[in-house]
Amino acid sequence: MAQLLVLVIAFLGACMDVRNEKIANGAIVIFIFIGLIYQTTIHGVVGIVEYLKGAGVPLLLLFVLFVFRMLGPGDIKLLSALGGIMGIGAILKCIALSFIFGAILAIAILVLCGNLGQRIRYFIEYVTRFLQTKEIVAYYRPGMQMENFHFSIPIFMSVILYVGGIY
């Protein structure tokens, strides 16, 4: 049952993200509610604690990436909703695999678009500017640029491996 829940939640999150450029907070609330119901049905009141532990890990680990606008808040909230159902161990693997899939997709996009060198220079300039000014600005460039892909897709890819029993 948990596998079906996380597969549906990850799929809906990815579809919403691709279609609307964001994952709606209302949907996240529903995902969280479903996860809490699932955990309390399986574990009783202790399920609430289990849910909060799994949901808290993505928030704690990925907060810095949110601050620098390197990862969207919807992606982090989606991972939290999934973590509440999957548990700490599985969500840690899900996050790691999501970043691996994301890196592969990003490199493929940058190589295919021919702007890998430009993005490396942009990253170096961004870090240098932050170190000099200590000013936090959004990392991504606004607009529909190829390198601004939806991280919910690598999250969904990772969840497929979870459902398939890979981790």
Give me the secondary-structure topology:
Blueprint: H1 2-20, H2 25-43, H3 46-67, H4 73-86, H5 88-113, H6 116-133, H7 152-163
Helix pairs in contact: 1-2, 1-4, 1-7, 2-3, 2-4, 3-4, 3-5, 4-5, 5-7
Explained architecture:
With 167 residues, the protein is mainly α. It has one domain. The protein has 7 helices and no strands. Helix 1 runs antiparallel to helix 7, helix 2 (25-43) packs antiparallel against helix 3 (46-67) and helix 5 crosses helix 7 (152-163). The radius of gyration is 17 Å and the shape is globular.
Task: Write a compact overview of the structure shown.
This protein is mostly helical. The protein is built from 7 helices and no strands.
Uncertain runs are none
Number of domains: 1
Tally of DSSP helical segments? 7
- How many strands? 0
Shape by Cα distribution: globular
Taking all residues together, what is the mean pLDDT? 90
Order of helices and strands: HHHHHHH
Task: Summarize the amount of helix as a percent range.
Answer: over 70%
